[in-house]
Amino acid sequence: MASHIVGYPRMGPKRELKFALESFWDKKSSAEDLEKVAADLRASIWKQMSEAGIKYIPSNTFSYYDQVLDTTAMLGAVPDRYSWTGGEIGHDTYFSMARGNATVPAMEMTKWFDTNYHFIVPELGPQTKFSYASHKAVSEYKEAKALGVDTVPVLVGPVSYLLLSKAAKGVEKSFSLLSLLGSILPIYKEVVAELKAAGASWIQFDEPTLVKDLAAHELAAFSSAYAELESSLSGLNVLVETYFADVPAESYKTLTSLCGVTAYGFDLVRGTKTLDLVKSAGFPSGKYLFAGVVDGRNIWADDLAASLSTLQSLEAVVGKDKLVVSTSCSLMHTAVDLVNETKLDSEIKSWLAFAAQKVVEVNALGKALAGQKDEAYFAANAAAQASRKSSPRVNNEEVQKAAAALKGSDHRRATTVSARLDAQQKKLNLPVLPTTTIGSFPQTMDLRRVRREYKAKKISEEAYVSAIKEEISKVVKIQEELDIDVLVHGEPERNDMVEYFGEQLSGFAFTANGWVQSYGSRCVKPPVIYGDVSRPNPMTVFWSKMAQDMTPRPMKGMLTGPVTILNWSFVRNDQPRFETCYQIALAIKKEVEDLEAGGIQVIQIDEAALREGLPLRKSEHAFYLDWAVHSFRITNCGVQDTTQIHTHMCYSNFNDIIHSIINMDADVITIENSRSDEKLLSVFREGVTYGAGIGPGVYDIHSPRIPSTEEIADRVNKMLAVLDTNILWVNPDCGLKTRKYAEVMPALKAMVDAAKLIRTQLASAK
């Protein structure tokens, strides 16, 4: 029985690509050095899958930034501002689109469906000129072939590419991105022709937008696109891959009728209804079903017995020789290799499988279907499943009772937001257009070294506290000198906002090398939520009080909200996600109340990932938003009116959930805005009334580019055209930890100067 992997992590087991990218960006190494690291990683990945017995091994899933940007490069769809003059797209143009440069901003970045991975959004219009400008797909196929590995080249499908794009600035709203299909398909044909000439026998088109709610004309675009490609695809086996959710019935009908397509890939972990469709609606005779039964988005060991049963039921529908065992999606959303976790609790470790182990699981299931079941391997898996179900460390009766008691209340604060803002202003006495930052300041090498040495017990707790205190003092002084109004302590004690809290909550486990790519070179190490969650001790109060004692200005207490902790963790799959979220909310509620008791007057509870967790199907939105927003309100429902509650959100499309954001009932929300061409403001232009404080970001922190005072002032004036002066805050898009002080200082100075300039203009206009 054949086996297939949708995609694989690209950063490397020790984040080799991350460090190579950052060295290249800092001009400490050459393009040749970067390419050598990348080639070594690709070779290692292909060899690993080949030796594991995987038949359908993907290529062209390796990327220096993301697969959508790679497709933009392939199509030569470079916005004019990058001054690209044609030819093969090089590193300078590619990374300028991703990160911006000294003269022009980066393209918009947003979340990849409902994951914490990001992609660079293509900017297209009727004037966009397309050309075959990156031969990466073909060169990587040839590279693998030279190593003796015949791969399945993977391309982002043409229709999904357009549906994931946006109209370029200045393009009429009525412009249909799908009208560009005829312009990009000739390039897809060129790529396919080169792959065929190189010897490819299979090709994979990723069309994940098929799991979304699509209109009839969007479904028709799939039919017309693949009909146009059919003659070019002749002689190739063609797999169309979907993932992350169920494929709706109409989309399933369209997909299984596409011309020239040999095989269909489905996520049968998050798409259990698709399984019913295959069985009830029928499956095309003679076609292959790539059954995604091994979860590509979580780190729990597969229940092999259950997956084998599912596969056996599918065999009866599609035929033994047409069923291929696969992952539910790319494994890039999980950690690389459990072998590297030498310090992880052995019982918990037995419950887990990272990407390398999932490759083995896929192959083991394929062999079992073919009558070559590894009885010892299956028995060990069954024992681990039983151990997890019966382990006393998973369940905490007291926590479960407290979460169950939440039902019956909406946990709103007793007074309106306008009354609270009045009470807070009397206490805080902030100027018009108050300035603040989002939380973190640059994480220097020295700071990382101090944390590392403290964790390794190479320095004492006293030395660690002294070093962190010195860093906080430096950050406070910088903000005071810049004349920022509401300060942060810079989070020097935290490597990662979710990991930091998870380390201090019960029910969490931590890996040493469980890194997952978020965007570009940015990697995160999600905690593992294996059991019921509670807060044994205060987590941030010591540092927040220390920082507040250093300044007369308001100091924000900085917390991560329950929905973001949930969505940025590997979450237990043995109970509904909302139950785990309510448990986390109760833990954060205790921390909020302790911060308030400690004299912290402004508390920020970040919900950066609230939009990210929104289900891909509209029919499921209301239920998710109800429990997610409720979880946030639980955290702060008990504070006084004079305590100002902030929240922060970033890098998603928030316009469609603005009413749920209002329903969170925060006093102030800071929200990403500048990198997405200020599309957030369109909501307010269209008549949505927002009465709480709001700080749409005035500059993009994910780019090294430093904005001018005039540029920021112009952004603020655009905000004032749709928002009241007395509710507007001035702040960056996001936290500053990924930037250098040489970038942060002039950017924040420009931000503060812009706020002061407009305050003066407002005062003189009275």
Automatic annotation (TrEMBL):
Species classification: Eukaryota, Viridiplantae, Streptophyta, Embryophyta, Tracheophyta
Residue ranges annotated for the Cobalamin-independent methionine synthase MetE C-terminal/archaeal domain, each copy included: 433-756
Details of cofactor binding: Binds 2 Zn(2+) ions per subunit.
Name listed for the protein in its UniProt record: 5-methyltetrahydropteroyltriglutamate--homocysteine S-methyltransferase
Catalytically driven reaction(s): 5-methyltetrahydropteroyltri-L-glutamate + L-homocysteine = tetrahydropteroyltri-L-glutamate + L-methionine
Organism for this UniProt entry: Lolium multiflorum
Keywords associated with the record: Amino-acid biosynthesis, Metal-binding, Methionine biosynthesis, Methyltransferase, Transferase, Zinc
MF terms (GO), sorted A to Z: 5-methyltetrahydropteroyltriglutamate-homocysteine S-methyltransferase activity; methionine synthase activity; zinc ion binding
Similarity remark: Belongs to the vitamin-B12 independent methionine synthase family.
